[in-house]
Amino acid sequence: MPRISTRRFRAADARDAEQIAALHADSWRRFYRGAYADAFLDGDVEADRRAVWLARLAAPAGTGTVVAEHGDRLVGFVHVVFDNDARWGSLVDNLHVIDDQRRTGLGTQLLARAARAVTERAAGAAMYLWVLEQNTAAQGFYRASGATCVETATVAPPGADPARLVGTPRKLRMAWADAAPVSRPAGGTSG
């Protein structure tokens, strides 16, 4: 696994849409199975994510996306929608790390960058995200970074297509009242 110092972080642009979509689709295939329909995950998910990322990166107003690279390979990304909710603040809409980079500190670095962007660009300091109820590892990661579970809700189907879900999966809203402490993680991994 690469040392932390070999990673580069930069703002994403439209040229990154394909790689981000591929990583996003792979992450959903690994961690959303059972909540999202196999037919969707094994079929349309990459095209769906490509359309989403092409649109997001073509018109990024009110958002920020940071990619992490190692060599010429995209190894992670985080996407924030600033001031998305009057009560909960800015939404960390996506944070995904390539499978062979999990548990290397990369997720912590990306979350710190999202929090730093919130403190620099949002009107309020609060930050939140949604995580699938079945994704207990991610919940543990966010709790360890100071998030609190504040509510549970039903997952909306991707592309508004109910056939893409299995039953009625649930999601948890994880929230930070102040993003500033998250922007400075312990252990100096914000590099």
Helix content: 25-40%
**Which percent band covers the strand fraction?**
25-35%
CATH top level is Alpha Beta
Enumerate how many helices there are, as a single number. 5
N- to C-terminal distance? 16 Å
In CATH, the architecture is: 3-Layer(aba) Sandwich
- What overall geometry do the principal axes of the alpha carbons give? globular
CATH topology description: Aminopeptidase
CATH superfamily: Gcn5-related N-acetyltransferase (GNAT)
Instruction: Report the radius of gyration as a whole number of Å.
Output: 16 Å
Let me know the largest β-sheet: 7 strands, mixed
Q: How would you describe this structure to a colleague?
A:
The structure is a single chain. The chain has five helices and seven strands, in the order E-H-H-H-E-E-E-H-E-H-E-E. It has a single domain (4-188), classed as Gcn5-related N-acetyltransferase (GNAT) (Aminopeptidase, 3-Layer(aba) Sandwich), CATH 3.40.630.30. Strands 1-2-3-4-5-7-6 form a seven-stranded mixed β-sheet, sandwiched between helices. Helix 1 (17-31) crosses helix 3 (45-58). The chain has helices at residues 17-31, 38-41, 45-58, 106-121, 136-144, and strands at 7-11, 63-70, 73-85, 89-97, 127-132, 148-154, 170-176. The two termini are 16 Å apart. The protein has 191 residues and is of the alpha+beta class. The mean pLDDT is 92. It comes from Dactylosporangium fulvum.
